[in-house]
Amino acid sequence: MSRKPVHLAVYDTFADWETGHTTAWLARVGYEIRTVGPSTAPVTSIGGLRVQPGLPLSALRPEDSSLLILPGADLWDTSDDLAPFARAARAFLDAGVPVGAICGATAGIAREGLLDDRAHTSAAPMYLAASGYQGGARYVEADAVTDGDLITAGPTEPVAFAREIFGRLGDVFEGEKLDAWYRLFHDSDPAAYETLNA
């Protein structure tokens, strides 16, 4: 099956642990993972990983992508430098292409107005409330939430974030296998291994 690439946003201070489960398993089933940065200049993650983006944000088009993933980063809370990535998320959603936002990226897309009318989650309600957004009534106390093409999660839930993305894309794991994958990697349930590998 031919698939469009998955685009992973990378920028200085991005939280490198938040998207590892997602990108690793998407790559294992055949998705090309392409990094997209503010430019093609190298960026450095919170963990000190130096990453050379494969594509500048200015060249990113929703029609060329299966999914845009926005990881958290200190920059979401300390400047407006990442606002262009939130605007890109709007373009993706307007085009019907899924977006996954975790941790600080949820505040960025909240400021862009993308959570005002969609069910969502994040680190905590008060964290998003500080953005001044209008979507507080749509906040859900859950590990991760999917509303149409938008997937959100808090900083402690990279496995739940991956589960929701896999469920939305529909061609990674499905049904019983998706549940087993989650139980194995989130709950360390050894019984799930047999189901996953059946």
From TrEMBL:
Signal peptide: none annotated. Pfam families: DJ-1_PfpI (PF01965). InterPro entries: Class_I_gatase-like (IPR029062), DJ-1/PfpI (IPR002818), Prot/Nucl_acid_deglycase (IPR050325). Residues 6-165 form the DJ-1/PfpI domain. PANTHER family: DJ-1_PFPI DOMAIN-CONTAINING PROTEIN (PTHR48094:SF19), PROTEIN/NUCLEIC ACID DEGLYCASE DJ-1-RELATED (PTHR48094). This is DJ-1/PfpI family protein. It comes from Streptomyces huasconensis.
